[in-house]
Amino acid sequence: RGLAVDAAPLLTDVAELALAVARRDLGANDAPPPPPSIRPLLRFRGRLSARAVDTLLRALDGDDEFRSRVAASASEDDVGRAGWIFLDRPEGWSDELDLLVAVEQERSERDRSEAEERSARHRAEHLERSVEDLRSRLGAAVAEADAARRALDAERSGGGKWNPSWIPGVPQVA
């Protein structure tokens, strides 16, 4: 069975455990050496990349003896249901793993959708506040323009001396 790439997120704990077991076995005299494909990873420290996880999972998938040694060091509590059935390989494990992957993808998509919805709501609220602010500023600008127009009309009609108080915000000169 080819390992589904979609299963990798559910099997990260298994990959990390496989690396730990390979390191342990490398130092033991009575343990078989780790699969050659993972030897470059044995010196690696830190969070495993997706490529490293894939390499470790392929090594487990293709090497029954190595997978058995990793399974002997694990429990379902350690690696989750998907990890455990991948290691232990009970009857029907492949179908169950596919089902677990589908459920996880559905959950992940739902979470992503909910996050996008929350983000859209926040953007909409921000835009509504911006529109309210712009309407308020537009109303003030219109009022100021109306006052200036009235002042100009009064000046043009010769209705008296120009009075700076006709324009809001212009200081009065005594």
Give a brief description:
The protein has 174 residues and is mainly α.
Task: Summarize the structure in words.
- This protein is an all-alpha fold.
- It contains five helices and no strands.
- It has helices at residues 12-27, 50-62, 64-72, 76-88, 93-156.
- Helix 1 (12-27) crosses helix 2 (50-62).
- The radius of gyration is 35 Å and the shape is rod-shaped.
Main sheet specs: none
The first-to-last residue Cα distance is 94 Å
Mean pLDDT: 85
Q: Structural class of the secondary elements?
A: mainly alpha
Order of helices and strands: HHHHH
Count of runs of 4 or more consecutive helical residues: 5
Contiguous runs where pLDDT drops below 50 for at least 5 residues: none
What proportion of the residues form beta strands (DSSP E)? Answer: under 5%
Radius of gyration over alpha carbons?
A: 35 Å
Keywords, separated by commas or semicolons:
about 170 residues, about 0% strand, mainly alpha, 5 helices
